[in-house]
Amino acid sequence: MNNLMVFSGSSNIELSKEISGYIEKPLGNCIVKSFPDGEVMIKIEEDVRGKDCFVVQPTCPPVNDNLMELLIIIDCLKRASARSITAVVPYFGYARQDRKTGGRTPITARLVADLLSSAKVDRVLTMDLHADQIEGFFNVPVDHLKAFPVFVNYFKKAGRTDNTMVLSPDIGNIKIANMYARALDMSIAVIDKKRLNGNSIQAETLIGDVQNKDILIFDDMVSTAGTIQAAAFLAIDKGAKEIKVVATHGLFTNPAEKRLRESPISEVFVTNTTPHPLNLKDKVMSQNDFPKINVLSVGNLIGEAILRIYYKRSVSVLLESD
After folding, report:
1. Treating both helix axes as pointing N-terminal to C-terminal, what angle do 63-79 and 108-118 enclose, rounded to 10 degrees?
2. Annotated catalytic residue: which of 25, 193, 213, 244?
3. Are residues 184 and 312 in the same domain?
4. 290 by DSSP, 3-state: which?
5. Same domain, yes or no, for 139 and 26?
6. Known catalytic residue: 238?
7. Neighbours of 204 (CB within 10 A)
8. Is this model's pTM higher than 0.90 or not?
9. 315 with 143: CB under 8 angstroms?
10. I want to staple 273 with a disulfide (CB 3.0 to 4.6 A). Which of 3, 61, 90, 196 is the partner?
11. Residue 31, exposed/middle/buried by CB under 10 A (0-12, 13-18, 19+)?
């Protein structure tokens, strides 16, 4: 692996260290600084000429800062004659803006893909995009990992009961819910929801019998927690017992803390694609406010994907659970 190098941006250094540990290569030395006016300055303090470089940088909040940092690191590596550059973006910011939602609105996910392509990235490695069609926005290869095997293996080892079922929080998520329901041998229910505005969700109809059932709600992310809060209240109203939420990306933006604290949700399972909210410098949540947040690591999964890309092996086998 003499030609393999992994660099980390500043958005999720702990995940980068886990990935580095898995592939048994130290992180490349990359200095990230900010000028007084807010401009970012990057310096790569490694010889990368002829190397295959992987840059780990989820574009989580602050999205614009982290995205710009990623673009600048890619430019540094390109100008230093790296042989190839793979952007490892476990959480892809702007993914929810994947289509026009009305007149005079952008498709920002496509714009971000164009920016990465313009920066001359050779490949993108990401996880659980909000919409699969975003892969088609890129004109470079995209390896789209799923947290599916991580969650399925966890719940299989934890054991299951006939009293547990999967609940899709909206119609658009039913494909993902079905995938988990089949893997865990559970029945499924679905909620028809209506979005009132950017922060408010109204769960209108629950299709399926959740009476006296323990519920697993699977979604791709927890942002403001509006969708899962509405789903949880409706499920409880229909006779469900315990509610647990499983999501790949734990953003926990305001007012997620308040909504989770006030909801009937007992536990939330997320991965470390974004920094855990309890580890952030400016904490958006505290352990006393909502103690049952469980973080499962995807570091080994991403590390294995990097090795497979480097050795030109199949990545699709990583989409399956044990």
Report:
1. 20
2. 193
3. no
4. coil
5. yes
6. no
7. 11
8. yes
9. yes
10. 90
11. exposed
